[in-house]
Predict the 3D structure of the following.
Amino acid sequence: MRGGGRTVSVSALCVPKLKLLQLTERKKMMKSKKLLSAILALVLCLSLVACGGNGANTSNNTSNNTGSDAPEKVMYVALCNDETGANQAVGKRKRDGTEFAVKKINEAGGILGHRVELLIYDTATEMQTNINAVKLALEDERISALMMPSTTSYAVAVLPDISAKEVPFLPIGSGISLAEAKNPYTWQLRDLSTNADPALVNYGIDTLGIKNPAILNLTQEVNIESGRNMRKHIQSKGIEVPDSRCFAVAADETNFAPVVAQIAASGADGLFTGLSENTVMTLAKAMADAGLDIPVLGNSTLADASVLSNVANEVEGWYTTAEYNSNDPREYVQNFNEEFIAEYGYAPDVSAALQYDIVNLLKAACEAGGSATDRAKINEGFTKIENLECLIGIASYHDDHSFMGTINIGQVKDGALKLVDTVSFR
């Protein structure tokens, strides 16, 4: 007789004893099976609780679940953001602005009855990591759209992947190279640099009276492109900008003393810039150290909270395209300011405001397209947006896939950005 993998010899005299042993072993086996079943059930529960979301951090915020037996409808949105790296402080404010918009949308019932859930991927302030994060996000078939609050060059690098997956794409960048790519899935809320740069030039030349301007940009192509655009517009106003007054520095440059010395030696009476938050701060300190006191006009990074909190004295009097101005008297803006401060404990800057607006631009596209999950319908919805109130202005669709028609010019006064002019360009 065979039992339990062992060979057992049995005689007629052992049968009663054998039956008793068999009963005992059956009871033991039944107890063991029950214990094993309980353990397996516990392991399964723990594994379900521990599961994350396809390699991304999730941000649920507020649920609109009514408690019914019907499955909850969810709209998934990917956010590829600098969670770590050199720009992580700025990345935090961009994430806060995004999550705040999602929270308020979910509290109001979601988008077309769908609760919005963010899937967050870290781009780590590095190009290849950014590309990898986007590729990973696009593998998730659930996502309805992808947002990227990074520089234009990072956005341009992933356009082929966006096209391949046909996912609505909302980068924060304002570079003209995004618009020139004519990607059918890319939507830029902000003023394009081709509009912002001339507005700054006009203000510097016509209002401030700059006669011998210098231009300083980063060596990234999108920033060089901005410099070319500024130079061309300055020359269209009858002012030449020789090569000796055109400068470029690397994005990771930490010593601006040499280039500041060159700007001073060039005889420039004004400086137009297109820099990142970190390089703006480095430039400001170097100019202060050198005693170079000339008007400086640059992109919206000059008004970033990290700049104003670290080098407010050094950038006092500088000018920028003030896309977001906390002093805007509109009720929509003032309510946002108060509610954001109550939620996060600090005043929102342009980074948080832009992402808040971008989330609401996506909401408007879903509503106009009639779907929160059909990518094609959402993409079509962007073309139907008209007169959407945003923190940075009023958004309406234009053929270049951008939405703004005015530009604010601001100046840093007493450590805060003050609106000094508004320019229309459409």
The two ends are 94 Å apart (CA to CA).
